[in-house]
Each structure stands twice: as structure tokens, then as C-alpha cells.
Amino acid sequence: MTEAVAPPRVSFYSLADDAAGDRFQLVCRLVERIYATGLRIYILAASDQDARHVDRLLWTYREQSFLPHGLKGETDAELTPILIGRDPDPGDARSVLINLAARVPEHLERFERLCEAVDHDPTVREAARERYRHYRRAGLAVEHHEIRLA
User: Fold this and answer.
1) How many other C-beta atoms can be found within 10 angstroms of the C-beta atom of residue 125?
2) How far is CA 62 from CA 2, 31, 56, 59, in A?
3) pLDDT tens sequence across 104-137
4) What are phi and psi of 128, to 5 degrees?
5) Most buried residue among 16, 73, 78, 111 by CB atoms closer than 10 A?
6) Which of 24, 5, 13, 28 is nearest to 143 (CA)?
């Protein structure tokens, strides 16, 4: 008998209207907080360029912190708790998926939690609204948090 898998909890994190920064900085903040709980993270980037940008930001995000991460295919995924890539399949077990792509990610059933990072860009916001509606229609529990970056 196969054990039923609970659908992922979906959380949208959007920058407040008066907040500075962008969704990449927001992802760094989310990663720092999630990593502190001991969970393994996969960041799904929209492009190789976005993946490399997040990779660079995580090295410089906060001087006093270290977030062990790497790019999928360029690091040992089994030993790396924070993995970044364009491939919708992280390959190994991860608890949290952070979506930077405009589309609904594949393989949602493999994750306990899905985080969507949204900034002020109108194109990003509209794509996020579409994904939000998709998740609701699919019967997933969706929550929203408005964030102010410090």
C-alpha cells in the first residue's frame, strides 16, 4: 500500500509597495530563515542567468552568515542543502521549493512547501496572480505574506 502524500503548503511572499529591493533579495531572506530550520531547499530559477545571479547573491547576502549552496550540476547535490537550478526536478529529496520561474512548477508533490517570491515588477506580479489562482483551483492551501526588506 502506498502512503498518501500531503499536498505542499503554498506561501506567497510579496514585497510591500514601499519596500526596497527585488525578489532575488527576498529569496535570500527566505533561504536564510528556512535554512535555519534545517530544511533542504531547491530554488527553481527561470533561466541560467537568474540561477547564477541567486548563486552570487547568496555568497554576499549577509556578511556574518554562511548559506551552503550551489548550482545543480556543478555541486554535489547530496551534500548541498541549498540547490539552485533551472530544471524543475531537483533530483534528490528537498523539503522546500522556492519558485522564481513564471510558470507553475512541476513535481510539486515532492515538496512539503512551496514559496513564491514576488516583487514590484508588473510582469512578475501578473504571473504570480495566475499561479495563485491555479493553486487555489487545484485545492491547495495558499497563504500570502507582505514583506518589507530591511
Assistant:
1) 14
2) 43, 12, 12, 8
3) 999 898 899 999 999 999 999 999 999 999 999 9
4) -65, -40
5) 111
6) 13
